[in-house]
Amino acid sequence: MRRTYVHVAVVAMAADGDVRAPGAAVTVAVCGHWEHPPPCPLAPHHVAAERSGDEVRLRVLFATRPEAVAEVRRRIETALRRDVLEGPDGVVTRWRFRDAGPGRLREEETAHAARLVRDGVRQADEGQ
User: Fold this and answer.
1) Global confidence as pTM
2) Its domain of life (predicted)?
3) Which of 2, 57, 60, 70 is 20 to 30 A (C-alpha) from 109?
4) For residue 68, how many C-alpha atoms fall within 13 Å in the half-sphere facing its CB?
5) CATH number for the domain including 22?
6) Rounded distance, CA 84 to CA 25, Å?
7) pLDDT in tens, 100-116
C-alpha cells in the first residue's frame, strides 16, 4: 500500500535562476521527463519551492510503497546534486546543493498527500 512521504532540500541559486528548475530536475529523476501523462509511474509527487535570498527550499511530497521510499529519495538527491537543468526553452539553470533529507508532513498538506496516494492507487488499479 502506498503512503505519503516528505523530502526536504536546500539549494543555493542566483537571484536570476528559475526557482522551478530544481523541481523539474526532481520530476525528471522520478518520472523520466517533466512532461508525462499522470500519474507519475514510480511515485506521484509534488514539489514546492520557496526562495529566501540566495537559498531555495524545496519540499517534495510523494506517495509510494514503503519498499520504494529509499529509491525515490536517492533519485531526488541525485537530481539535486547535479546542480543544473536545461529547460525546454534551452535556458540552463544552475544551483548548488546544500542539504537534503526526510521531512514531516504538515497538517495543511494532508489533503494533498491523500490525493497523491489516490493517484498511485488508481495507477495500480489501471495496471500501469
Assistant:
1) 0.89
2) Bacteria
3) 70
4) 18
5) 3.30.70
6) 8
7) 999 999 999 999 999 99
